[in-house]
Amino acid sequence: MKNPKSQQSNQTGVDEAVKQLHDAAAAKKCRHCGCLRSSLRAIEEAYPKSARPEALASIVELTCSRLSDVKYDCLGCKVCWPALAINALGVEGDACPSEAAESREGWPPLPGSYHVLRYHAPVAVCALTDESLSETVVSAAGTEIAIVGTMQTENLGIERLMQNTLANSNIRFVVLCGADSQQAIGHLPGQSLIALVRSGVDERMRIIGAQGKRPVLRNVSREAIEHFRRTVEIVDMIGETSVPHILDTAKACAARNPGPAEPFAGTRLVATVAGYLPERMISDPAGYFVVFPDCGRGLLMLEHYRNDGVLDVVIEGRAPAEMYIPAIEKSLVSRLDHAAYLGKELARAEQALLNGGSFVQDAAPEFQTVNEHSIKPSACGCGSSCGEDKHA
Ligand code: SF4
Fold first, then answer.
1. How many domains is the chain built from?
2. 152 is a domain residue
3. What is the residue with the minimal CA distance to atom 8 of ligand 1?
4. I want to staple 123 with a disulfide (CB 3.0 to 4.6 A). Which of 62, 93, 250, 321 is the partner?
5. Residues at CB less than 6 angstroms from ligand 1
6. Contact partners, residue 102, CB within 8 Å, separation at least 6
7. Structural domain range at position 379
């Protein structure tokens, strides 16, 4: 890391580095970027405080004081001031960080710039460096797309994409689209990922055939790489920005989905819990509801009873949300399972109201299990019938 240029030839480099760091310090985007942090670390190591030229010391101090939480490793900007600064100083090392991100429970395990849409879908879309394309694809995506995001670097970016993909064996396709980075520091993450899938890595974990600046994978195992190459198909649409074309391609991929891959050993998959009914009823101390559609008036009706059987509130409205919001605000429901049950019954009553079908209020699931005879269906005057939820 330590290899600054000689003293004589250094002044021009220092002047240039100071100028570039001034721009970085002034840019809000850089304060959250891993590149600025890594570059400052490289400069501090190469120029210990005692040997740091004054102008450089003062701009490093100013820039450090403006650093904020790291929100991304590298934005892949066409001009990266910290990268130009370390180049000007002749400091060995890279502007972009190379440390692994800390994983967390759940999916995706690694943070990044993406939107999760549906865990069980088979297609991931990576818009490479094009944030706005990513946003547009998200807003138009169908049910076949699991996740949409960007990727900026040929090392950490690929590692994250690979690890997040391996942690969800439903994903069998990654559609690469949008612009690959063209900036001076030349990441080319898209070309590098395609090279990885085509040829793998060499003995130094360098992606064979990758043209990015530093396509070396340090934080994933060879086994993970091979599993990824074997189970995930990369669809090369680099440079494509037509959203309909991208979405059609995602649909075509889903149409030939081979189903979930064998999970990669060592990845923490999200646990699937089999649904079940409760073994015993737990009453809602706040009371119980009677739900019914009043077809004559085109309204949903909600009666709330205290547990001693006394009616205390009547709510009427045209949509479930108009009913459950006041019910919650008036503290007529105090248990989450009761609230969920109320939402379900209001939705059923709304369907009966809209379609003119009959409606019989279901017992609360606990009550069905424990004592089905406590439901008392009764006519509501429109052909539908209702029953107390007896969630009490
Ligand atoms: S890539 Fe460089 S210029 Fe862009 S935000 Fe990060 S540090 Fe700043």
1. 3
2. yes
3. 30
4. 250
5. 24, 27, 29-30, 33, 35-36, 74-75, 77, 80-82
6. none
7. 288-386
